[in-house]
Amino acid sequence: MKKTLTIVLSLAMALLLGVVFINCGGSDDNNDTCPAKCGEGKECCEACPCAQGTCNAEGVCETAGDCCPDAPAGQIQIDIDGMIKDASTGQGAQVHVAAISPMDALTSDSPELLSETDSDANGVFHLGCYDVSNVALGAVVLTDDSPMDGTGGTFFPTGTGVKGWTTNDEKVCVDNAVGFAVPNTIIGALDQLPDVSAADDGLVMGLVVDASGNPVEGAVIKKQDGDNWVDLGSIYYPSADFSDMSGTATAVTGMFVIPGAQVAGLTVIHAEKTGMTFDTAQVAGKSGFCFFALVPELSE
């Protein structure tokens, strides 16, 4: 179990921290010097945000609809390109891949599959253009066996957030997305923890990271209860080598595991550590589903 969970830890960190998208939202940080800051031929980058829209992987400002020009009138469409990795090996996983809405990922037992495909033998996938006009919060990539078989087979249904948005201008195509497929062997190991029943209650795994994307040690996860932040009834903070699950705060890995029964309804969580302020994340335990959550430090 220790070896298996250590693999999960290292890959989850690499994958989640790798899924970082540059959101360019209206700053006027010396846009006239963008080529000097970002490289010749690029009109935007982290140091030089777009005046409007979102900076894509090629350093071009995109606004909603640019990437799917054949979308029917009235629709905002995006597509998603990326790779799925097997959480037990770090290699590409050949699985079924579907785009679902974050709310479906958090709450629905039968999420609507907005776009579907199979990844190839190297884990590479392309989800064709689909309508996100009425999709709130962002995009989640769902992985499972092909054909999808729920909790059976080789892989456990797992959702990875690959893009977030708050406005229509931020609804743009996603390049170099990384999701992962969690084998049922790993789920079986996690099921040995008290209070964890992935098939019945689901589970939430996540990372606390600082503003630079580095794992945060010594953080505690709380859930919102009205105007207060309170302790979860059960949560696990694995030690760095996963030999001990009795920690009272995140280890150097920044990782936490929440039994699904502790977040049976839509729950807002955040992290607390002296001298740091963290963003919130919405999570929920859902039977037969593993949800990964990133809890980042708020940038000043």
Describe, in plain words, how this protein is organized in 3D:
The longest helix has 17 residues, at 2-18. The chain is mostly beta strands and 300 residues long. 13% of the residues lie in helices and 34% in strands. The chain is built from five helices and 17 strands. The protein folds into two domains: 2-16 and 63-186, Immunoglobulins (Immunoglobulin-like); 196-296, Immunoglobulin-like (Sandwich).
Low-pLDDT stretches: 1-31
Q: What does the overall shape look like? A: globular
Distance between the amino and carboxyl termini: 40 Å
Mean pLDDT: 83
CATH C-level class of the largest domain? Mainly Beta
Radius of gyration: 19 Å
DSSP, total strands: 17
The helix-strand sequence is HHEEEEHEEEEEEHHEEEEEEE
Q: What profile does the largest beta sheet have?
A: 7 strands, mixed
Query: Please, how many domains?
Result: 2
